[in-house]
Amino acid sequence: MPANAPDSKMLCYCRNVDYGAVRAAIEETDARRVEQVMANCTAGTGCRTCHPEIQELIDEYQARRSGFLKRLVRRILSRG
Ligand code: FES
Question: What's the predicted TM-score (pTM) here?
Fold first, then answer.
């Protein structure tokens, strides 16, 4: 499961990019698509075999971010 992979584990073998670098690229670009990661850190710009793993990391990041924003809005509204 990509979410549990250590940052040091290789994700894109074509471009020698690990999970940590892909996670950083996703956060930096607030990525929703693999192409944003490709442009930021070159992961996925070779054979494209790693695209499903990159997309899974993007989906996990966006789900976490969405959950955080929902909790924040709920907290703000409950103060009203
Ligand atoms: S393994 Fe990532 S592009 Fe080939």
Answer: 0.88
- Write out pLDDT tens, residues 37-57: 999 999 999 999 999 999 999
Q: Which CATH number fits domain 2-79: 1.10.10.1100, 3.40.50.410, 3.40.50.150, 2.40.50.180?
A: 1.10.10.1100
Q: Which residues line ligand 1 (CB under 6 A)?
A: 12-14, 43-50
SS3 of the chain:
CHHHCCCCCEEECCCCEEHHHHHHHHHHHCCCCHHHHHHHHCCCCCCCCCHHHHHHHHHHHHHHHHHHHHHHHHHHHHHC
Write down the pLDDT at residue 63.
94
From the CA of 51, give the closest atom in ligand 1: 2
Distance 39 CA to ligand 1 centre (A): 14
